[in-house]
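User: Structure please.
Assistant: Input sequence and predicted structure:
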Amino acid sequence: MIELAIKGGSFTWSSQRCIEDAILEKLGRVLSAREWNLMFPKAICVMEATIASDHAPIILLLSGLKKKWKKYFKFESKWLLEEKSSSNVKEAWNSLL
């Protein structure tokens, strides 16, 4: 197993006390197999800021992957509020008949 480097900080856990009494530890780690590293050579780990927890989330980014999902058209009804949009939609529907 290989430990991946984490960008964005050295500690993943904090006692959330004042600076003088603070305890900081690296509890979170990302481990991978050599074969996985060969499959994802551009993978990086990024530590995000803590918001409501004493643990910092670690995000694994697999750079360079191609998206395999299709983008679908989503109609917004607010487009019909504009007169020109409404006539364009009517024209498009009538052209299909």
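The beta strands are 2-3, 6-7, 13-14, 24-25, 31-32, 43-47, 58-62.
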